[in-house]
Structures are given as C-alpha cells and as structure tokens.
Amino acid sequence: MIKVPRIGLIIYPHMSPFHFSIPYMIFNIDIGEGKLFDLKTISIIKDWQQSDEIMVVKSDGGLDLLEHADIVIVPGWHDIATAPSPELMNAVYHAYRRGALVVGLCYGTYVLAYTGILEGKKASTHWMAESDFKQRFPNIILDNNALYVEDGNIITSAGTAASLDCCLHIVRKFYSNKIANKIARIMVAPPHREGGQAQYIEYTMISGCHNRQINSVLNYLRENLAESHSIDKLAKKISMSRSTFTRHFKKETGMTLINWLINERLLYSKDLLEESSLSIEQIAELCGFKNTTSFRQYFKKRYQVSPNTWRKTFA
Fold first, then answer.
1. CB within 8 A of 128, min separation 6: which ones?
2. Could you report the per-residue pLDDT of 82-96, keeping only the tens digit for each?
3. Does domain 6-200 have CATH number 2.40.50.1020?
4. Using CB atoms within 10 A as the burial measure, which of 35, 154, 176, 184 is most buried?
5. What is the DSSP letter of 210?
6. How does the average pLDDT of the chain come out, rounded?
7. DSSP character at residue 256
8. Do 124 and 101 touch, CB atoms closer than 8 A?
C-alpha cells in the first residue's frame, strides 16, 4: 500500500485567505482515486485562527503535529518585519533537520529565513520584498525571477499566484505529471506557466535627477528613443567632456548610457505591446532597437518571455 504523504499546513493570526486557500485546495482534492495527501491544519497559538477579519479556520492541532509531517507549508506571513515565535521557528527547524520537505509560499519564505535554514541557499519570494529581503538576509541567494525555487529539501515560491505553480510542482514531485495536470484542469489553471515573476515587476522610470544638465539629456533621450545616440554627441550637447558626462550620468541614473537606453526602450515597448496594434517590427523600430532580432533578445532576457507572449498576456 502506497504511503500517503502527510502535510502540515501552518495557520496563524491575520493570514491571507488566498495564501491559505491555494495549498488547502490543491492538497485536499480528491481526483477519484482517494486523497493524495493527508492534510492537517496546524495552529501556532489556538485551535481557531482568524484570517484578515474575514474567516476563521479551525486547526487540527498544534505544532506537535509537525513531528510527523512529510511536508511542512508556511502559506505567506502577516508581517515581514516580525520574526516568528521561537516555538514556530524551532518546529520548522526540526522538521527540516529530520528531512521533511519545508515550503515557504510567497512571504512564507521569510519564516524559513528567520529560522536560519535558508542560509547559503537559493530562494524566491514576492518581488516587492526583494530589497528588504536582501537587506535582512544577505547570505540567502534570492532569485527574483523564479516562480519557485527548490534547494535541497526546501521549496520557496514567488508572490501570491506563484503559490499555485509551486503546489502543482510538489504534486509532480510526489506523484506524476499526469496527476498534476489533472489537478490543474480541475483548478482551471495552467499545469506549468511560461516565464517567471519578472513579467510582473514594475521597473520604475527615473523621472528626474538633481543635475539639471543630465536631466535635460534624459528628457531629450526619452523624446528620441528611436534615434541612435553616442556619449560624445550627448556630452557636446551640454558642453561636457566625455569623461565628465559619463561620470555624472552614472552618478545620477545608476546606469551606463547603453543600459539606461535599453531599460527605457524596453519600458516603452511594453506600453506599445499592451496598448497598440503595431507589429513587433514597428515596435522595435519605434523603440530604437537596431532590428527585430535584437529587440526580441533583449526583451526575452529581461522578462523571460517573448514580446508576442507578453502581448497575449497583458494586451
């Protein structure tokens, strides 16, 4: 008889209903062959946990249930600046040490990071927390593009909806592609999404800087992205030497001229893909890329998907 994997799904005060619902639904689904997982909700404080003042979830027990779990899941976290209780960290740490698969969904990665089990390992979390996470946990290798990352017996996922991708991956890991695909169809979700969370990251445009001369250059460049530009011509335009211009430009924008132009051209191309019916060739030309091939390569490198796929997703 095949052993059904035991899952400990941790619930806590003020958790997100969405973060809780995804693993609860996927690992509780009966596809006609019986339950695939033995799922238990585990409370860190009381038998009942309130979720964002919307719903109350009854737990199956306390942290002692984690001692028998094959998989431990932390579905998000209510406050990334607040470390988990010593009891929760201790329970997660011991589950990891005895070989259980430990999973942090979205901000749940923070719980694993606070526990210390991610030190020196690769991980993922919501892109909005990138700078905060890197500052708090400099020894963890954060992959800001991956939908989920597996390193040893730890799996972490990116923001919110990526939890679904992560949970389906766990089903594939313990069973098969066929069963994961069947669950995906029941959930009306793609079995495997193309690309990563880089698609959804807001790359902000530098609106202005302290140096008025450089600021005038930035405005000029944005109005003339389709043209070719050189450092020498731009430096001459504001009566600077090449070296002085290069130094001030890097100081104000944090980028070289070529990298700044690529960034602005890609941002503009996203707008055109989403809001216009122009062809890829026309968009490449309007954004200042030398040719369509170059545009496709830069776009794929930044967003992990092709311009056509971006248009289909966001237009």
1. 159
2. 999 999 999 999 999
3. no
4. 154
5. S
6. 87
7. -
8. no
Residue 223: burial class (beta carbons within 10 Å; 0-12, 13-18, 19+): exposed
**What value, to the nearest 5°, has the Cα angle with vertex 162 and ends 82 and 313?**
135
Verdict on whether the full-model pTM lies above 0.70: no
Residue 199 has pLDDT above 50, yes or no: no
Q: CA of 256: how far to CAs of 47, 247, 260, in Å?
A: 56, 9, 6
Which stretch of DSSP H or E encloses residue 10?
A: strand 6-11
297: its two tokens: 């390569």
Residue that is written with structure tokens 């969405």 in the block: 18
Buried b (16+ CB within 10 A) or exposed e, 121-145: bbbbbbbebeeebeeebeebebbbb
Q: Which CATH class is domain 212-314?
A: mainly alpha
Distance between CA atoms of 103 and 122, rounded to whole angstroms?
Answer: 13
pLDDT at 212 over 60: yes
61-92 in b/e form (b: 16+ CB < 10 A) is eebebbeebbbbbbbbbeebeebbeeebbebb
**Beta-bridge partners for 101:** 71
9 has which bridge partners? 41, 73
Write out the two tokens for 8: 């400990």
Q: What is the separation, in whole angstroms, between the first and last Cα of the chain? A: 50
Tens of pLDDT, residues 92-112: 999 999 999 999 999 999 999
CATH 1.10.10.60 location in the chain: 212-314
Phi–psi pair at 157, nearest 5 degrees = -120, 160
| CA-based nearest residue to 303, from 206, 225, 204, 200 | 200
Q: What is the rounded distance in angstroms from the CA atom of residue 302 to the CA atom of residue 289?
A: 15
